[in-house]
Amino acid sequence: MRGLRAWAGWLILLGVFCIGFGTWLPLPVAAQASDITLVVRPAFQGMVRPGVWLPVTVEVTNNGVDRTAEIVVGTANGPFQSTFVELPGGGRKGLILYAFIYGSPRQLGVRVLIDGTEVTTASARLQPVTEGLLVGVIGERELRLPAQLTDGIKVTSVPVPLADLPPESLGLSPFDALIIADVAANEITPDQQRALQGWVQRGGTLLVNGDVGIARTLSSLPRELIPATAGALAAPLTDPSVTSVTLTPSASAPEVYPITLPLISTPLPLAYGKRFGNGQTVVLAFDLAAPEVVNWSGWRELWQALLPPPSFIPSGLGFGAKLYSTYVEENLASALTTLPALDLPSLNLIGILLACYLVVVGPVTYLVLRRLDRLAWGWVVVPVLTGIFAAGAYGIGYDLRGGEVIVSQITLIDANAPTSAHERSFIGIFSPDRYAYRLQATESVTMVRPVSVQGPWSSPPLTNGTYVQGSDDNLVVENLEISQWSMQAIASDRVISAPLITAQITVNGDTVQGEVTNRSERTLEDVVLAYGEQIALINALAPGEQRSATLERPSHAFDGISLSYLIYGPQFEAMSRVAQPVSPTLQLRSRIIDSLYGYGSITRGAQPLLLAWYQDTETSLIPVDRRATMQHLTLVRGAVRLQVTDEIKLNSNGFIGSFEQTAGTNSPCYNGNLLGIAPDLQPTIMRFTLPADLIGLQPSALVLNLRSDSFWSGEIELYDWTTGSWTPILTDAFQSVALDIPQPDHFLSSQGVIRLRLKNRDFQNFTCVYADPVVRGRLP
C-alpha cells in the first residue's frame, strides 16, 4: 500500500513538473519578419454594403532580401482573396486587391505570407451600410447631400477622390449612385472610364453635376453614358435662384429622356437621363452644390427625384441585410443542385455482367461442387459469389461514373447594351471524395468568389479556399476543400464584348408583333419572346438568322401564371398525361427562370423579354489535376426594343412592382403576379415602374386597383412628383376597389415611376393589400 502511495506521489510531482515546464516553454507562433512592413487602406473610407467588392490599397515595404510574397485580404467570415508579388530588397510595392464583403463585418484583415508562413499582418476598420442608399461623390468639389430623404430613407455619402476610383467596375459595386463634379477630361484614365461604364451597365445611377466644369466633365465620360451636352448659359431660375446652362439631348433614341424636377417650373428641361444596360446617367443643368440649392426649401424633394430607390430586399425574404442582386444570384446558384442525370453505363456491359453472374452462380457452381462431392457447400458459395459480383459491379460503376468530379455551370448573359453584355457564371463542383481543389479559368477572369448553393435563406461561412487575383496562369482558386459527395459553388462576374441577340416588339392595339435577330456565332435554342402573358416560341435560331412572329396568350395561361409555366406548360402537361417525369434539362431551365422571375420582391410587369439558351459557355473553371465531367447551360437575355404605334393602355400587371421602403412587421404578399404587403403602423412604400421603352409616357388616365385578403381600412397616399409631397387617396374600408386618379401626370413621373404609401391605422386590422395601377397614354 505504501508503495502505491509512493508511486502516486512521484506521478503527481512529475505531472506538476511537466505542466510547469510546458508553461515556461514559449508557445509556437508564426514567424514575424521585422524587415517587412505593411500599410492597408480600404477605399471609400471603408464604407461597404453586404455582397459587394471593396478595393483595398496595400503597400508592402521590404527592408530585407528579395522575396516572393503572397498577400491575402479578407474578413473573419471570409472569403479570402490573394495575389503574389515580387518584393525586391529595399523596395516598396503598392497594389490594389478587391475584397468581397460577405455579411456586415467591421474589420478587414491583410496578411503577408512567405513560403506559406505568415510574416506580418495589418487590419483596417470597415463601416457597414445596411439600410438606405450609399452615394459616392467623385472629384475634389464638396457636395452636400441630405442625411435622409423625404420619407426617412437614409442617405450615406462619401467622397471619392479620383485616385480612389478603381480601374475595375466591380470595385464600384458598394454604391447605389455616383455623382461626378468638375472633373477635367484627362483626369479619368481609360480603365476608370470603362469601370464607370461597366458599373452603370450593372445597374448604377451616375449623376453629372451642372457646375461650371460640366463641359469638361462630360468630355471625360464614355460617349455611351452621355445623355446631353452643355451649351450656353440659360436664363437664371427664380426658385431656387441659381444659374443654369442649356442642355441639348445627345440623341433622339428612346434611351434618352427629359426629367421633370419637383417644384421647378421651366420651359426647357433641367435634366436629361439616358439608360445604359440596367443603369442610367442623369446630367443636370445647374450646380447641386450651389448655396441657393442647398438652402432651397425643395432641396430634399429634389434629391428624392434624382436618387434611385434602395436596393435592399425587405426583411423576411433572406437572412440578414441583403441586396436584391445578391438575393437573385443566390437563387440562381441554388439551381446548381438540379444536376442533369449523367449517361447510364452501357446496356451491353450490364447484360454481360448479368449473364456471367447467372452462368457462374448456376451451372458452373453446380458442376464444380458436384465434382468435388460438396453440393452442401452451395449455401456458402452462392452468397460469396454474389458478394464478389456485387463488389465487382460497384467497382466498375465507380470507375465509370462514381469517381468523376462533376462541374456544373449556369451562365446568365444580359445582352443589355449595343456592344457589350453582363456575364455572370455560377460553377458548382461536385466531389466524389474529400479533396482540396485548385481551379483554373479557361479565359482571363479578374475576380471570382464563393457562393452558397443553399439559397438566400442561409448564411454559411465562406472561409473555404483562397481566391487568387492576377495569376499569370489563370489560376483562380486554391485549397478549396470539398467533402465527399458534397458541392461547393463559385461565382464570376464580368462585362464581355458580345453583340448576341436583339429583338423588337411592336404593339398596335391588341396586336403584338415581334422580330428577333441572332447576332451571335452560335445556334440558340428555345428562343422565346414575351410581353406580359403574350409569348412567341421561336425555337432554334441559327447565327445571323432573323425571324418574325406574333405574340399571343397561350390557351393554358391563367391569371397569376409563372413565366416558366407560361413557356413550358404544354411540355409539363404532355409528360403528366403519359405519367412520365419531366426531363432534367426542362426542370433546370424552369428552375432558372423561376429564380429570376418567380421569387423575390420585384415583379416583371410588361417589360418585354427575350430569352435564349445554348449548351456552352464563354468562360469555365476546370479542376487542375482531376478529371471532370463538364455540364454547361447558358441563358441569354437579349435586348428588346418596345415600339408603340398608337395610344397604349397598360393593363393589370403592366408595371414592374417593387418595395422601396418597409419597416416593422411589414411582410411581402403574393397573389398570382400581384405584389402586396401586409401594412403595419409604420408606412410602407411600394414603387411601380413602367417598362423601359415607355418611360416618358404622357398619361391621360390612371386607375389604382386595390385588393385585400379581408376588409382593410388604412392610410393610402400617392406621391405627387410636381410638388414633392404625398396626396391622400380617400377610401372607405374595402376588399376590392378601383380608384380613378385625377391629374395622372402628377403621379407618374417623367422617369415612369408611381410611388404608393400604405399605413395601417389599427394593428389588429392585419391583412395583405395588393396594388395594381393601370395607365393609358401616349409617347411624345
TrEMBL record:
InterPro entries: Class_I_gatase-like
Gene3D superfamilies: 3.40.50.880
UniProt keywords, alphabetically: Membrane, Transmembrane, Transmembrane helix
Membrane-spanning residues: 349-369, 376-396
Record protein name field: DUF4350 domain-containing protein
